Amino acid sequence: MLLADLAGTAVFAIEGAVSAMRAGLDLLGVMVIAFIVALGGGVTRDLLIGATPPNAIRDWRYPVLAFAMGLLAFVFHTQVLNLSESLLTLLDTAGLALFAIAGAQKALNFGISPFVSMLMGTITGVGGGVIRDIVLARIPMVLQADLYASSAFSGAAVLIIARRLGVPPVTAALLAAAACIALRLASVTWGWQLPRITV
Amino acid sequence: MLLADLAGTAVFAIEGAVSAMRAGLDLLGVMVIAFIVALGGGVTRDLLIGATPPNAIRDWRYPVLAFAMGLLAFVFHTQVLNLSESLLTLLDTAGLALFAIAGAQKALNFGISPFVSMLMGTITGVGGGVIRDIVLARIPMVLQADLYASSAFSGAAVLIIARRLGVPPVTAALLAAAACIALRLASVTWGWQLPRITV
Amino acid sequence: MLLADLAGTAVFAIEGAVSAMRAGLDLLGVMVIAFIVALGGGVTRDLLIGATPPNAIRDWRYPVLAFAMGLLAFVFHTQVLNLSESLLTLLDTAGLALFAIAGAQKALNFGISPFVSMLMGTITGVGGGVIRDIVLARIPMVLQADLYASSAFSGAAVLIIARRLGVPPVTAALLAAAACIALRLASVTWGWQLPRITV
């Protein structure tokens, strides 16, 4: 579990570093954005559910890992910026599922109601990217495009509904991951979008 | 009291949905911005005064109501986008007064000093709109235009001063609402502005 | 100590007011940005380390001081906007060193690990300016230019390493301030920059 969590942190940190380098930030900016994308969602969830200090502050391994991945991505930027889009999407989708499920479960453990725990799982998955977009002064991508946040919500919702129905934890987590990953990959593959009003 | 609070939440959620539809966001974005405008101020206040988890996280009725109003505003967008500006201003002013007063009182109940409680009331009233503007990557309207935040502050200040002078709670709240609403409507009607330096 | 902290708050509030007046905000906006720049870093640190309510909420003297400096800077805007850049840089550097050191020490006192305490010191020093930039819808300056955040981190790191090596508190703080101030002034004087990838 810890290993999976650290793997998700590393993947999100690399993605953050890529977006920071594309935005022309310096080495510090790259490391800070790597930290934000990797840990911002979890920190937000922990502040909201009252789990303070947040895990990423309490356990130094998370920030050290995020900064180290940011630094590595900066040093090996030629290789990192040449990673194929489909590989990045796959890794990101795995990280999204993991964060959404772990986040929903943690909220539930803190006595948060089922529906709000689904929201907390979603925030864990997408919060880091949202804060990154806010810091880079652009409208968060997840509010505008494809089913990214919806996939995170689906994973969190399947987990919580399955747990309520008495499904054992590991099976529930696998079902939830399947739901999140399937919806995300299907929406990317076929270009699914949520409806939008034109005014 | 609870009913008034839920009514204020519903009004702010609809306003949030309107601004999100005007910004071209998809259904998810509309629901998220409805949530932010309705509950962002109260969540910020609760985090700052140490009332964690914030009320909107602890009590699932608030997020469900905000999302439901966002969804309804999206479905009935033709009607909602045609609501008259003056009706929206009236509803918004009522919500602002309510949130500012309830927020100041809650801060006071948590042992926060009178002056800072006035600030917490102001944040409860205007915080959701400020976070919305930040997420939509624009300079918060309340820092630039008319006496919106000043009206919220007036309401919170009148409440706290009246309570200090021994005025009973309900009378204090009515006086405070009158102050907030009068200042807001007067400033809209006569175009009052705060001074500004031209550099 | 309290006096130094209040002096740092006043300096940062004036800087905030200057940037808000340059951005064309009204009196309220100037006071709010003064508050944010002066107290935003400390509030963020306190929320993250679980010291709630944050000091700036608990102790009314801090917000009153920040608002008063914002108001004074607005009233005496001719004089304030004519302060020389080098004087402002000196004052700002002193405030940065003070906030970074005090913030790192406070995190350590709350049982946060040494490395994360260095981060908390850095956030205390630069957080207010970052939030200001986010509110004004621009990419935070510290992610793009010179060694501002790096200087804050150096100060926090020297403090914590010195304390670990058994250096007495006052000596450690003086060493840390010297490190932060020297790095900041050297980077401004000689135009030092962190490396950056061009993509």
From TrEMBL, chains A, B, C:
Q: Which domain of life is it from?
A: Bacteria
Keywords, alphabetical:
Cell membrane, Membrane, Transmembrane, Transmembrane helix
Q: What family is this?
A: Belongs to the UPF0126 family.
Residues folding into a coiled coil are none
InterPro entries, alphabetized = Gly_transporter (IPR005115)
Membrane listed as a keyword = yes
The identity of this protein, by name, is Trimeric intracellular cation channel family protein
| GO CC terms of this entry | plasma membrane
Name the membrane topology term: Multi-pass membrane protein
Provide the Glycine transporter domain boundaries.
3-77, 90-163
Q: Where in the cell is it found?
A: Cell membrane
* Membrane-spanning ranges: 30-48, 60-80, 116-135, 147-165, 172-192
A Pfam family per the record: Gly_transporter
List the taxonomic lineage.
Bacteria, Pseudomonadati, Pseudomonadota, Gammaproteobacteria, Pseudomonadales
Could you tell me which PANTHER family the record lists for this protein?
INNER MEMBRANE PROTEIN, UPF0126 INNER MEMBRANE PROTEIN YADS-RELATED
Establish whether keyword Nucleotidyltransferase is in the entry: no
